Amino acid sequence: MSDIDDIIAGGGIVFRKAKEPASNNGKVKTKAKKKKYITGAHGSGSARQKAKYREARANRKHK
């Protein structure tokens, strides 16, 4: 109950302006969308494995 009393006695609640959303100037936000990560070229075994699966899935469409 003291929180409510502090708000009332202290002048109320201060509302600030909302932050503006960050402009997305065509930048890639995650590693998963970068070319080297997609192709598995940066050396990660996990990325190479995922690239292999992506390639196989892409090749299934082009019979």
Task: Provide structural commentary.
This protein is an all-alpha fold and 63 residues long. It is built from 3 helices and no strands. It has helices at residues 2-9, 35-39, 45-61. The N and C termini lie far apart (70 Å). The mean pLDDT is 75.
Task: Estimate percent helicity.
Answer: 40-55%
Global Rg: 25 Å
Total DSSP E strands: 0
What separation lies between the terminal Cα atoms? 70 Å
Number of helices: 3
What structural class is derived from the secondary structure elements?
Answer: mainly alpha
The general outline is rod-shaped
* Strand content bin: under 5%
Summed over residues and divided by their number, the pLDDT gives a mean of 75
Succession of helices and strands: HHH
Low-pLDDT regions: none
Largest sheet geometry? none
What's the quick description here?
The chain contains 3 helices and no strands. It has 63 residues and is mainly α. It starts with a helix and ends with a helix.
Task: List the main descriptive attributes of the protein structure presented here.
63 residues, mainly alpha, 48% helix, rod-shaped
Annotate the secondary structure layout.
Elements: H1 2-9, H2 35-39, H3 45-61
